[in-house]
Every structure is written in C-alpha cells, then in structure tokens.
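Ex. 9. Protein: Membrin.
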Amino acid sequence: MEQFYLQTTQLIQETTDLFYKLERDPSENIENAIQSKINAINANCEKLDILVFKTPINQRPTAKMRVDQLKYDNKHIQASLLNAQNKRRRRQQEQEDREQLLSRRFGHDHTAINVDFLGQERNSLQSSHQHVDEMLHTGSNILQTLRYNRDTLKGAHRRLIDLANTLGLSNATISLIERRVSQDKYILFGGMFVTLTVIVLVIFFLV
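Predicted structure tokens for Membrin:
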C-alpha cells in the first residue's frame, strides 16, 4: 500500500508541475497530459481503497484518511483542469467571433449581408403595401356605406315630405324637417371627408 501511496503522491506533484506549464502556455496537449495523470491517480485511489481493508485494524483509520486526502486533491485537480479548459475555449470562441466579424465587415460576406438586408427590407415594404391595400379596401367599403346611407336619407326625406303633405303639416314644420335633413347631410359629408383624410395620411406616411 505504501508503494501505491507514494506513487500517487508523485503523480499529484507531476500534475501540479504541468499546471504551471499550462499557465505559461495554454494548449490542448498539456491539458491531455494532465487528464492522463488524473486518470492514473483515480486508478491508484481505487486500488488504495481495496488495500485499506488489508491493513491492520488499528492502522485503517489513518490509512483511509490518507487515501481520502489523495481523492480530495485529485478532485481539486480535476476542477482546476475543467476551469482551464473552459478559459481556453472561451478565448478561442472570442477569437473566432472577432475573425468572423472582421470577415463580415471586410470580406466576401459583406455582399451577402447586404443582399440579405435588402431582402428583409423588400419583405417589409411588401407587408406595408399589403396593409395599405387592406386599409384602402376598408376605406372604400366605408365610402360605399356612406353613399348608401346618403341615398337612404334622400329617400327618407322624400317620403317624409310626402307624408307631411298628406297629413297637412304646416310649412314651418316641413322647413324644420328639411333643416334637420340638411344638418344630417353635412354630418355625412364631414364623415366622408375625415375618412378620406385618414386614408391619405396613412398612404403618405407608410408608403
């Protein structure tokens, strides 16, 4: 057991030395070497777990504590390696992002980006035109409805005059009715004017 313990301690020391090299020169090769050392330490710890139960009973607590310390050190080494790998990957990703950004600004992809942007702008204009067409169609329907209401009011006015004459209403009452119909006509024309104004403003600002 003592031989495996010393061997594992030596592996931990060698792994620590590799971390110093990794700080000076971050590379995947050094990371692989560290991972290989960690795997060897894990294998030795598994063997040491078995050997602990073969030691005398009065020495087992101390032997187990020494093995647990090796396991703890190895977990700390594994965590440090993962941290170093993540840092290296982030640096590589940042470098790739910078290169990709530069190639987009000054490389051949610049034309592709412009074409894509123009396509998006064209789709946006087509969508705006479609909305304007829908609004024009709605405005046309409103105008048709207003014209229909105007014709209806004219017919109602004629029928009302005929009815008044039939009932023998006074000229003052008939004049009052005609004045009210004229006011309704102005309201109708005002509504038509407001509707047309809104449609023109929408076309002016969206097209």
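Check your answer against this statement. The chain has two domains: 2-107, 120-206.
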